[in-house]
Amino acid sequence: MSTLWNHNYIKVWSANFMIFFSFMLIMPILPLYLSEEFGSGKHTIGVVLSGYTIMALLARVFSGYIVDTYNRKTVLLLSYGLFATFFLGYLIGGSLILFAIIRTLHGGPFGTVTVSNSTVAIDVLPAERRAEGIGYYGLSNNLATAISPTVGIYIYEVWGNFQAIFLLSFLMAASGFLISKTVKHTPPSKIAAGLVPPKKSPLSLDRFFLVKGWSVGLMLAMLSFSYGVLSTYLAIYSKEELGMTQGAAAFFLILSVSLMVSRLTGSKSLRAGRVVHNATVGMCISVFSYLAFAAIHNYWGFFGCAVILGLGNGHMFPAVQTMFVNLAPNNRRGTANSSMLTSWDVGVGAGVVVGGIASELSGYSTAFWISAIVNIIGVLFFFAYVRRTYNKNKLR
User: Fold this and answer.
1) How far apart are CA 264 and CA 34, in angstroms?
2) Please, are residues 130 and 1 in contact by the beta-carbon 8 Å criterion?
3) What angle do CA 297, 28, 375 make, to 5 degrees?
């Protein structure tokens, strides 16, 4: 069996870790930053932070086409360089409007770099271990999520220095860019027996979104809606409602450890090709986490949700990504990845906005109940329609 952890895979794995370390380092402290520095209310925080997700969504719509049409490593380096540079912009965002502009524009390179890096990762994986490799690739996200929010919140609690957090994010992203420069990448058209690359097909909707995967994308958007509500308002909720100043850091740490355990235990099933099985198990577990978070307003509900959500998403997410990849030909891998991430962004962005409005009007409890209900609808849609159409249309 071919080696999974080859040198190039380790490099793109590490580069992805740096992307999400720098991203998650500032994620939980941004609502606190907007509240303390600019006196922003809950609704304003939701609107400002949703701009990043909306821009990432717009970028990802076109990223798949760009990655499939042009040199993938060149696209990766350009987008990674911009992604790192934008962190310096937070250091000069002295007004709410300027900060909102910088934060929104930052979503563009983030959307492109995540698509290009994950596509390069798939290219450097041996075909027979691709599903397993996708699962392990996500461990880099989970490890970053386990460490970086804790570091960011620790710096905030001890020094109260937001500028130091923004600078550290830049340094981590810049390190990831340097790692990406050393990756040796061969386009998939040349991997296949040295054949001449196929002629570029005319522009169509399928070049920007994997049409065969529309039902999987809609389902994923419903599931990510719930995560958008929970992850964005977690820090403020734990501080204001439960009196935990470092509750968000502990939550993300527990969530990430649980995710890593789940991905490791689920890798054997992915290697055996049981993709739908893993997705089914993951969704059925995750739905209980959102119900627990909405219904139980104490430490048990708070941290119990982190454990259950990690176990569920660790099975679900790599399986859903594999479903997208299995629905696309090799020369549309970028489109498959961008379609998956676009679907995720649509849900998260909607969750951020709706969660902000709901918490402003009726409190956090209402926002979290809405997230649980939407999650249940997504799971029911998977059982009623998505599984059948995926098995009918998959290419491998």
Assistant:
1) 37
2) no
3) 55
Q: In this structure, are residues 33 and 332 in contact, taking their beta carbons and an 8 Å threshold?
A: no
pLDDT, average across residues 10-21: 95
Nearest to 22 by CA among 147, 194, 209, 169: 169
Q: How far apart are CA 154 and CA 165, in angstroms?
A: 10
Contacts 24+ apart (CB under 8 A), 2-8: 2/126, 2/128, 2/129, 3/126, 4/125, 4/126, 4/129, 4/132, 4/133, 4/136, 6/124, 7/184, 8/124, 8/183, 8/184, 8/185
> Mean pLDDT, to the nearest integer, of 360-367?
85
CA dihedral angle for residue 14, residue 18, residue 20, residue 25, rounded to 10 degrees = 140
Residue pair 131/271 in contact (Cβ under 8 Å)? The answer is yes
Q: What is the DSSP letter of 330?
A: G
pLDDT(198) > 50: no
Where is mean pLDDT largest: 5-9, 93-97, 169-173, 355-359? 169-173
pTM over 0.85: no
Is the pLDDT confidence value at 193 over 80?
Answer: no
d(CA 368, CA 292): 10
CA–CA separation, 306 vs 300, rounded Å?
10
Mean pLDDT to the nearest integer, 136-163: 83
Closest CA to 275 of 113, 114, 132: 132
C-alpha to C-alpha distances, 145 to 19, 25, 208, 285, nearest whole angstrom: 11, 8, 29, 20
Q: How far apart are CA 45 and CA 67, in angstroms?
A: 33
Can you read off the two tokens belonging to residue 235? 């820090």
Dist CA 268 CA 264 (whole Å):
8
**Cα–Cα dist 130/211, whole Å:** 22
The amino acid that residue 148 corresponds to is S
